[in-house]
Amino acid sequence: MNLIAAIQSFVPGCAQEAADQDLILSLALREPIAILTRESLAAHMTASGFIVNEARNKTLMVHHNIYNSWSWTGGHADGDSDLLAVALREAREETGIVNVTPLSREIMSLDVLTVPGHVKNGMYVSAHLHLSAAYLLMAPEKQPISVQPDENSGVQWIAFDSLERMCNEAHMLPVYRKLIERMQKLV
Q: Which InterPro entries does the annotation name (predicted)?
């Protein structure tokens, strides 16, 4: 499914998602290549995976170097319009897991996320927006995990009821709660 079709097929679950879907669609129609790459300095597409274990009571998170917080996996589309493939690739790259599958092939959350200015690889990156498509993924908890030092300083299964204590990004907690609720409805 191409980028525009994937975004259009998403059914918003709240006013925030409807507004964010409109903004993402507007940018995707106006600058389809620029938002899939990092040519657009103001906003670009990202895909994330909220990875749950088979018991569906924990999520696999990374301790993100830039945000200094436990976070879902994900990254920039970097030209790939298959956002599910991006989410799966990032999940594997950032955690070292091999066995991970989608609980659904559909986008489970659309969010426009603010990224504060920061230094990455010795270069300053200005504040910008991540146009985030999130997917629910599942992985067996017993497989090996590994840190990717250029991206994170930890990889860990975190119980859902510990997210508020572990995540330093308060603005991400409603996104994680929304994904947990949607995952529970898939059962």
A: NUDIX_hydrolase-like_dom_sf, NUDIX_hydrolase_dom
Q: Token pair for residue 111? A: 């969010």
Q: Is 96 exposed, middle or buried (0-12, 13-18, 19+ CB in 10 A)?
A: middle
pLDDT in tens, 64-78: 888 889 999 999 999
* pLDDT digits 0-9 by tens, 95-137: 999 999 999 999 999 999 998 898 888 889 899 999 999 999 9
Residue with tokens 């986008």, as numbered in its chain: 107
* Main-chain phi, psi angles of 141, to 5 degrees: -70, -25
R_g of the chain computed on alpha carbons = 15
Q: Is the pLDDT of residue 166 over 70?
A: yes
Cα 173 versus chain centre, distance: 13
Query: Does the pLDDT at position 1 exceed 70?
Result: no
- Three-class SS of residue 106? coil
Structural domain that includes position 120: 3-186
Q: What pairing do the DSSP bridges indicate for beta strands 128-138 and 43-52?
A: parallel
Which CATH number belongs to the domain containing residue 130 in this structure?
Answer: 3.90.79.10
| 0.85 exceeded by pTM | yes
What is the total count of domains within the chain? 1
